[in-house]
Amino acid sequence: MYIKTQGLVLRETNYKEADKILTVLTREGGKQTVKARGCRRRNSPLAAAAQLLVWSDMTLFEYRDKRTLNEAEPLELFWGLRADVEKLALGGYFAEVAEAVAEEGRPDQALLSLVLNSLYALDKLNKPLPLVKAAFELKLLCVAGYEPLLDACAVCGALEPKEPRLDLAEGVLHCAACGLGDGAGRTLDESSLAAMRHVVYGDPKRLFSFPMDAPGMARMSTACEDFLRTQLDRGFRTLDFYHRLTDGGPTP
């Protein structure tokens, strides 16, 4: 059976002499494992589409629950992203996180749109990389069912908590004085809290459109990354690589 779809390559693994095994996030079928036969041969018509972070029109051949890439026409290769090693590393991180939360065979239009929009932001929008990264991490957690409660302090109900903190385990906001037991938290400020509320509750089409000062960006960046690590309970090799490029060493 032939299936026509659109898909983004989240992972590529060389297989045998000239093939690849691809993990593809498709529009209709969600995450799919796809074999691309002969794509590593010179002049293969599948070569361009069978690369990490390429969005393509695809024709898949399905037989006995296995899928093979039969035809592909790249729609977006994100050249601006590929020309910058830090942007490319961050795009690889987005792909690894998306693969981790996507379910095999389950369509997830919200996740697909988020990844594509985030790659577009890296490629075209000229936004600060920490801003794009933090917005992606926080919105991905919302899409995956880990949306934090940021509307008010979870203890006293204050709409604008004094010295606000995000509880990483519980995913709730609280004043510094209220506390929530011994759970790890990250300190926010007015700027970072406003930006995080924009990402969680605002228009998805304006996901990366919010003002940030340097201290607020630093707090938001730390909070969003640590919240993602805590909620997904794992690390990411691509994130460690990104930090080696930008910070000079991996995150603890």
Write up what this structure looks like.
Belongs to the RecO family. Involved in DNA repair and RecF pathway recombination. It holds the Pfam family RecO_C. By secondary structure, the protein is an alpha+beta fold. 37% of the residues lie in helices and 24% in strands. The chain has 7 helices and 8 strands. It has helices at residues 79-82, 85-101, 109-125, 129-143, 190-201, 214-232, 237-246; strands at residues 2-15, 19-26, 30-36, 55-63, 66-76, 164-167, 172-175, 185-187. The strands form 2 sheets. Strands 1-2-3-5-4 form a 5-stranded mixed beta barrel. Strands 7-6-8 form a 3-stranded antiparallel beta sheet, covered by helices on one side. α2 packs antiparallel against α3 (109-125), α2 packs parallel to α4 (129-143) and α4 runs parallel beside α6. The chain is elongated.
Instruction: Report strand order across the widest sheet.
Output: 1-2-3-5-4
Q: Terminal Cα separation, in Å?
A: 47 Å
β-sheet strand percentage:
15-25%
Report helical residue fraction.
25-40%
Query: How would you spell out the order of helices and strands?
Result: EEEEEHHHHEEEHHH
Question: Strand count, sense and closure of the main sheet?
Answer: 5 strands, mixed, barrel
What structural class do you assign from the helix and strand content?
alpha+beta
* Radius of gyration from CA coordinates: 20 Å
The DSSP helix count reads 7
Query: Could you tell me the number of beta strands?
Result: 8
Uncertain runs with pLDDT below 50, 5 residues or more?
Answer: none
- How would you sum up the global shape? elongated
